[in-house]
Write a structure and sequence with these properties.
Layout: E1 14-15, H1 20-30, E2 34-38, E3 44-49, H2 50-55, H3 57-62, H4 67-70, H5 84-94, E4 98-103, E5 106-112, H6 113-123, E6 130-137, H7 143-153, E7 158-164, E8 172-179, H8 183-192, E9 196-201
Parallel strand pairs: 1-2
Antiparallel strand pairs: 2-3, 4-5, 6-8, 6-9, 7-8
């Protein structure tokens, strides 16, 4: 998974000389919350968010302020070929809503929290017709292979597997999403083989 496949490539930008009111109007018209500030050649020189602009809106009415006065001059950025996980880590660690995506200095996209959430939801198969079974085991070695074998023995088709942190240090929990199926025979086989089933969604 790379940023290129999930970023918004039809980027709305703004020039540095724009007023605060003009930038907010652009955001409202285009339903975006982040604006790359660019030069005439499309090179990035700054980044503003709706929160930044609303915070200085009253001040901009009392004195002449432009985006150049309030923009973030060295924003965190991504590249099109950056792993999506890396972009997600930056956004989470820095507690920001999105990143401009650059090739050299030119803006080619924007990746936001919503884009990343959409990517992971799709990859995990959450929007497809699916079933889910959560199991708890004592070791990461061996049991997962056996769990998959048992599921496939009941013609279950695995879409995704997620390791879920457990409150019990000696336990390991896996959330396994399957193509929509009858879970009862799967659950019966798992439990007969000593696999603890903790939660299901049929």
């Amino acid at each position: 998974m790379i940023v290129r496949n999930w970023m918004t490539s039809n980027v709305v930008t703004v020039k540095k000389g724009a007023s605060i009111q003009e930038a907010l109007a652009i955001m409202k018209q285009t339903s975006v919350r982040h604006l790359p500030v660019v030069e005439a050649d499309g090179n990035l020189i700054g980044w503003v968010t709706d929160a930044d602009l609303r915070g200085v809106l009253i001040a901009s009415m009392l004195e002449e302020l432009t985006l150049e006065d309030v923009m973030i001059r060295k924003p965190f950025t991504a590249t099109p070929d950056m792993p999506l996980e890396e972009a997600a880590h930056i956004i989470l660690e820095k507690r920001i809503g999105g990143l401009p995506v650059l090739e050299d200095r030119r803006v080619v996209g924007v990746i936001t929290v919503v884009d990343i959430l959409s990517a992971f939801i799709n990859i995990m198969g959450m929007l497809s017709q699916s079933s889910r079974v959560d199991v708890r085991v004592d070791s990461v070695e061996g049991p997962l292979h056996e769990i998959i074998r048992l599921i496939q023995g009941r013609d279950g088709e695995v879409i995704s597997i997620c390791h879920v942190p457990s409150a019990e240090e000696q336990k390991f929990t896996y959330s396994i999403r399957l193509k929509k199926c009858d879970l009862k025979p799967v659950i019966d086989d798992l439990e007969k083989n000593g696999i603890e089933v903790v939660h299901t969604i049929a």
